[in-house]
Specification:
Layout lengths: L21 H27 L4 H13 L1 H39 L2
Length: about 110
């Protein structure tokens, strides 16, 4: 059974918890980056075996012409990540206001 905030239980929130320290998050990011760097070369060599030399040549020649399109795609990706982060931050602020208002009204 779910309790109301007036019964002594906190309202669940998406706010970051205090016990999640910055150093712990950075260590996790570093571990994931290191794992990706270790796995990248064997994965490329494995995928290289599945393509013929003619296909690899076609990839190399074709990708030079698509540099600008790939640049725009990368910029669009970065923009969407920034927008998502911004909207998440704004939502967390709005959530904090509503939770504070609810706790004031429910007392």
């Amino acid at each position: 059974m779910r309790r109301t905030p007036g019964e002594g239980e906190d309202v669940p929130s998406f706010q970051p918890r205090a016990e999640e320290s910055l150093s712990r998050r950075l260590a996790l990011c570093a571990q994931v980056g290191l794992a990706a760097a270790v796995v990248f070369v064997p994965l490329v060599l494995l995928l290289k075996d599945f393509c013929s030399e003619a296909a690899l040549d076609a990839f190399r020649k074709d990708n030079n012409a698509q540099w600008l399109q790939n640049c725009f795609t990368g910029v669009g990706l970065v923009f969407s990540l920034f927008a998502a982060q911004t909207f998440g931050f704004l939502y967390s602020q709005q959530e904090a206001v509503y939770l504070a208002l609810y706790s004031e009204v429910s007392e």
